[in-house]
From TrEMBL:
<dbReference type="Pfam" id="PF00697">
    <property type="entry name" value="PRAI"/>
</dbReference>
<dbReference type="InterPro" id="IPR001240">
    <property type="entry name" value="PRAI_dom"/>
</dbReference>
<comment type="similarity">
    <text>Belongs to the TrpF family.</text>
</comment>
<dbReference type="GO" id="GO:0004640">
    <property type="term" value="F:phosphoribosylanthranilate isomerase activity"/>
</dbReference>
<comment type="pathway">
    <text>Amino-acid biosynthesis; L-tryptophan biosynthesis; L-tryptophan from chorismate: step 3/5.</text>
</comment>
<dbReference type="GO" id="GO:0000162">
    <property type="term" value="P:L-tryptophan biosynthetic process"/>
</dbReference>
<keyword id="KW-0822">Tryptophan biosynthesis</keyword>
<keyword id="KW-0028">Amino-acid biosynthesis</keyword>
<dbReference type="InterPro" id="IPR013785">
    <property type="entry name" value="Aldolase_TIM"/>
</dbReference>
<dbReference type="InterPro" id="IPR044643">
    <property type="entry name" value="TrpF_fam"/>
</dbReference>
<keyword id="KW-0413">Isomerase</keyword>
<dbReference type="InterPro" id="IPR011060">
    <property type="entry name" value="RibuloseP-bd_barrel"/>
</dbReference>
<feature type="domain" description="N-(5'phosphoribosyl) anthranilate isomerase (PRAI)">
    <location>
        <begin position="5"/>
        <end position="208"/>
    </location>
</feature>
<protein>
    <recommendedName>
        <fullName>N-(5'-phosphoribosyl)anthranilate isomerase</fullName>
        <ecNumber>5.3.1.24</ecNumber>
    </recommendedName>
</protein>
<keyword id="KW-0057">Aromatic amino acid biosynthesis</keyword>
Amino acid sequence: MPLLVKICGIKTMAIMETALNAGADMVGLVFFAKSPRNVSLATACTLSGRTCGRAAVVALTVDPDDDFLQLVMRDLKPDLIQLHGRETPERVADIRQRFKVRVMKAVGVSARSDLADIPAYAAVSDMLLVDAKPPKDAAHPGGNGLAFDWDLVAGLDPGRPVMLSGGLDPDNVADAIRRTRLAGVDVSSGVESAPGIKDADKIKAFVAAARRAEAEVGYGAAFAAAG
Ligand SMILES: O=C(O)c1ccccc1NCC(=O)[C@H](O)[C@H](O)COP(=O)(O)O
């Protein structure tokens, strides 16, 4: 299966166009008021319209309530809801079933013990995202540009595709792909010039580096051999 590359926290048409032209498979729109990447639902709908099916649209939410999800599903109709809060496996299952939407649950990792929750989340999610566990005093539960020990998730296979995130950037993404061989990579801070300000050249460099590593590792070949 080809490597999935997600660019998260897109706020402008120009950057959406850059991510699509660079070859991103997934684009993330952040709904979290305290984030410098937060977008309104109206802006998200406009940005999403630009994709024309070239990339999957991911609505990033943090402990969303049903009223908000109803609006997101009615107006944005994302391909995937990313759950980046303290949602329990029961709540993840509830959202997936109630809204008939694919979900990607983010799991914070800083130690091997954090992987204990993964089977329960894999059972109720379409995809998982492993991210650095935020520091206790962090203002945001994600998008902090912090990396974790990738060896903890190397080859992780809970029966659902797993994306790697947390502190990735154009310089380290190839190493991360080689070491973990997960289904995809997700970046936000590492392709910015300042919090919330995406840098077009960094996005292009990130996707290019990820694609080179994908070819080197042989993602498609492994899939063909297995299939
Ligand atoms: O981006 C945010 O501001 C954010 C706010 C609240 C929850 C999650 C958030 N971001 C998550 C992501 O952008 C990515 O999925 C991932 O964590 C990558 O973050 P980064 O380390 O900045 O590359």
